[in-house]
Amino acid sequence: MADLIGLIWAGIISGCLYAMGAIGIVLIYKSSNVVNFAHGNLAGLSAFLVFGFTAGLFAEMAWGAAVLLTLVIMVAVMAVSYLLIAPLVFKSDLTSTIATLGVGLLAQGVTQLLFGSSVVALDLPLPSWRARLGPLHITAYDLAVLGTTMLAIGVLYLLIERTRIGIAFRAVSANPFASRVCGLSLRRVHLFSWVTAGLLGLVASLLIVPTTFLSSTSVASFMLQAFAAAVVGGFNSLPGAIVGGIFIGVIMNLLSFYLAAEFNNTYLLLTMLVVLNIFPKGLLAVRGGLRV
Q1: Helices vs strands, H then E, count in the chain
Q2: Total count of domains within the chain
Q3: At 221, which CATH number?
Q4: Per residue in 122-150, pLDDT tens?
Q5: Is the pLDDT of residue 213 over 60?
Q6: Tally of CB atoms within 10 A around 255
Q7: What is the DSSP string of 128-178?
Q8: Distance CA 170, CA 178 (A)
Q9: Between 56 and 151, the higher pLDDT residue
C-alpha cells in the first residue's frame, strides 16, 4: 500500500507537468482548430534560452532575470511562429496543422544552431528540503511543481474569465463564425492563444528538465505525454487537459512500476486507445462551434 500511495503521488507530480503542456496544446486547438506539433520544440528552445542566459553562453544572469528575459523573447518567438502559419489557418485545418511540424523543425534547427547537440543540465534554484508524511516522500521540487501548476491554472482562469481577450477567446472557441460576424478579430485571439501556450511551455520545460536532462529533443519527447493528456482529456476542454495530465501521470507510473518500464510508449498508446474507445472525444469533451 505504501508503494501504491507513493506511486500515485509521484504520478500526480508528473501529471501536473503533462497538464501544463496539454493546456498549451488545447488553447491553440480551441481557438483555431490547429494541433500544434511544434509545442515541444518551442518549449525546448525556451529552456535552452534560460540555460544560455545563466550558464555564461550569452550572459551570466541571475536565474529570475534570465527567466523574465526569456519570457519576453518567447512572446516574440510565438508571435512569429503564429505569423508563419497564419495565412493557412483560415484555409485548411489539416494544412495549418502540418505546417506546425515545419515550425517545430525550424525551432529544433535554431536550438541546435545556437546550442549544439550536446546534453546539458539545467537545475532549478530550489533548496534540498525533503520530508516524510506517512508513506509520502515530499521534496521541495514536488511542492514547486504543485504550486507553480496551481498558480498557472489560477492566472489562466482569471485571464479567460475576467478579461476582454479572455471573453473573446471563449466566444471564438464556442462559435468562430458568430464571433467574426460580431466584429471580433480571430487573428488577435489566435495570437493570444499562441503566446499564452508558449509561456506555459516555458514554465513546463523549466520544471521538466530537472527530472531528466536538456537536449534539443528531450523536451519534445516529454511533450508526447502532454499530447496524450490532451487527447485523453478532450482536445477542446481546458479542464480536460488538467484531468488528462493527472490521469496519464498516475497510470503511467503504476504500469511502469508493476509491469515493465521499458514499454512506456506502448502503455501510452494503449491508454489512449482504451479511453478513446469508451469516450471518443475525451473524458471531458465539450461541444465546439462551427469553423469559419
Answers
A1: 11, 2
A2: 1
A3: 1.10.3470
A4: 888 888 888 888 778 889 999 999 999 99
A5: yes
A6: 19
A7: --EEEETTEEEEHHHHHHHHHHHHHHHHHHHHHHHSHHHHHHHHHHH-HHH
A8: 12
A9: 151
